[in-house]
Write a structure and sequence with these properties.
The chain has 213 residues and is of the alpha/beta class. The protein contains 6 helices and 7 strands, in the order E-E-H-E-H-H-E-H-E-H-E-E-H. The chain has helices at residues 48-57, 71-74, 80-98, 131-140, 154-163, 198-211; strands spanning 5-7, 22-25, 63-69, 104-108, 148-151, 166-170, 193-195. The chain is globular, with a radius of gyration of 16 Å.
Amino acid sequence: MSCCYFASLDRSSNINMVMQKAIFFDRDGVIIDDVHLLTKISQVKISNKVIDAFTMLKEMNYLLIVVSNQTVIARGISTYDEVDIIHDFINDVLINKTSSRIEKFYYCPHHPEATVEKYKTNCMCRKPKSGMLYDAAKEFSIDLNHSWMIGDRISDIIAGHNAGCKTINLLTGAHNAKPIISDAMDLSKTPDYKCSNLLEAINIIHQLDQNSK
């Protein structure tokens, strides 16, 4: 079991405990615009292409799960409750505009150089490690080998690759960022696909699903 904290959202129906497919998303730069150290709802921006992507996902047979490093907690500039409020807001927008929802937000509050001492640890949940994906797979009975990880950083790609998922790298700018600090940073790992935005990524997954039928 990984050491990540995760926020559970109320669900209106039980999950059918058979092996399911999932799409794992990084949060910042994938579902919402990347704002450095986002701490407020007023900073949340969801693009039209993301809305179109989630509208399309409504007709696809995937669990939708976020796995996110949240160093705002490790830095002491945000709390669990404040992060949860932002996630609830994101889900409310997606539900109202697309009828799709994020099944669960998993997030890691740790950092090896954290300002807040209790979060200063070399955990198993901080991407590029795959702890959050493994936790989700256990909780929701997810077949990782038939699932996807979509992210804008190489750490997302490594986490997805090591968990057995297919991966898509969004080329939104952060793909060129300096790799985060981690003993699991394996730069030999490369994405299965590259796209400029989330809608393109979902179109690839949809087309591959159609071709496999």
